[in-house]
Design a protein that fits this description.
The protein has helices at residues 2-21, 25-35, 40-65, 70-94, 102-121, 123-131, 136-143, 145-163, 169-178, 184-210, 215-235, 241-260. It is an all-alpha fold.
Length: 262
Amino acid sequence: MIDIVFYIAAGAAVGLAIGLTGVGGGSLMTPILILFGFPYNVAIGTDLLYAALTKAGGMVSHAKQKTVQWRTVGFLAAGSLPASMITALLLNKVFTDSAEYQGILTRSLGVMLVLTALVILLNGRLKTSSNRQPGAINQFVQRHSDAVIFASGVFLGVFVTLSSVGAGAFCAAILMVLYPRLPALNIVGTDIAHAVPLTLIAGLGHFLLLGNVDFMLLACLLIGSLPAIHLGTAMAARLPGKLLQTTIASMLLLMGIKFALF
């Protein structure tokens, strides 16, 4: 019973942070579950389904507001969804036990936490640089944006499946660089619309092929987080969100370095 209370509290804490700062749940939830003593594989698999369910409502809202670039979502998903399924299949076929691929999960989690932290910390500079006149490399990337988006989707499919991190802030940074004139609300909407199917497919892969999902834990996290997200959103206007983002990003950076060097 005490454990259940702790899990609900963890969900509430992450939900509150999401509402206050917009920082994605995966980058916070997985390290917290690992600190609670859950195996890396169970923390990652459970968090993927948690992310899909918590972001689904946001996807519906953005779709109603027509702030989703569905063509971009299609190119991202064309790369990410098959890559996610192949990654889960390889983990299932190549390794006989989760302990054998724990090192891969650990280092992938560390790398993605560091990348996510850097994206959050450098968010202002990314926006500024994306609004400048693009150089030769940026012009080439933007001319071949569909291919770059597809390749980015493949990268996200692999590493989100291995770490549960990256479908939010990291994907948004990619969109920001590739589409500098796209309004921020559309970047968020497109990012969420892609994150939901990716985390759902990755989570189902962990459940069906690897058995890496704890549904009791998932239910507790959702009970705590869903109301807390709304509370955090209501409080966001009254608190220094930038300071909170920087604090969380610094924590993610330190945890990422620890996991990457584990």
